[in-house]
Design brief:
Layout: E1 2-6, E2 13-32, E3 36-51, E4 58-66, E5 79-84, H1 96-107, H2 113-130, H3 138-147, H4 153-170, H5 179-217
Antiparallel strand pairs: 1-2, 2-3, 3-4, 4-5
Organism: Bacillus mycoides
Pfam families: DUF4145 (PF13643)
Protein name: DUF4145 domain-containing protein
Length: about 230
């Protein structure tokens, strides 16, 4: 079985072979007086190992879900995370336009620093568009997001650095895009994307889980008496 995947080793998006899969199920139980332990749900972890045909390196992916994570129609919600190679953020959680721009930056990360900075700048442009930011240029759009509470002020100020470096790369200015600079640009862009897209999802999931447990705790306890 093959699936189209982005290899974070070589940067190629290609059909990767699913080498093996391991599934791990964890039951969720509660203790009911008079009945003992009762299973109320189940958590599922699925580990997939993919092989890249280009660089011959593997990618380990974890997919997780549970009986508590589903939509109103019963559709299961699965979260996905790349465990290996270790990447700072999870691009799969980003909207398609943002995801494509960020993946493009990953592809050229080890090839051309100037092009990488342009791709990161484009990633921020896509994020601003997705969030409905207004403004004539990237700086004003980022400030709009800051003023409206989408990103904190410190990220807005630092984002302008990405914009300026991207401009320098586009205009062919004499800037040395070494690995340290590129890594810093990546790290900061990832922090912004995590703040905008990933953290809110985690908070919603925690809120959902706490709501489920609160409902369970409010259920009346059935006492069993012996005659």
């Amino acid at each position: 079985m093959k699936e189209v995947r982005l290899c974070f080793h070589c940067g190629n998006k290609t059909q990767m072979e699913l080498v093996t899969t391991y599934k791990h199920n964890i039951p969720e139980v509660e203790y009911e007086p008079g009945y003992g332990e009762i299973q109320i749900g189940e958590y599922w972890d699925v580990y997939n190992l993919f092989l890249c045909p280009v660089c011959q390196k593997v990618t380990l992916e974890l997919k997780s879900s549970s009986t508590f994570e589903c939509g109103p129609d019963g559709t299961e919600y699965w979260s996905e995370k790349v465990l290996y190679p270790l990447i700072e953020s999870q691009v799969i959680k980003f909207p398609s336009g943002v995801k494509e721009a960020f993946e493009a930056a990953h592809k050229v990360r080890n090839i051309d620093g100037a092009i990488t900075s342009l791709a990161l700048r484009r990633t921020l442009e896509r994020m601003c568009k997705d969030k409905g930011a207004e403004g004539k240029d990237l700086y004003r759009k980022l400030k709009y997001l800051s003023d409206n509470g989408v990103i904190p002020p410190i990220l807005s100020v630092m984002s302008s650095i990405i914009k300026d470096i991207g401009n320098e790369a586009a205009h062919g200015d004499d800037v040395e895009f070494d690995q340290q600079l590129v890594s810093s640009l990546f790290k900061f862009t990832e922090i912004i994307l995590e703040y905008v897209y990933v953290i809110p999802r985690h908070l919603k999931k925690i809120q959902f889980d706490m709501g489920i447990r609160e409902e369970e705790n409010q259920k009346p306890t059935v006492e069993v008496t012996s005659e």
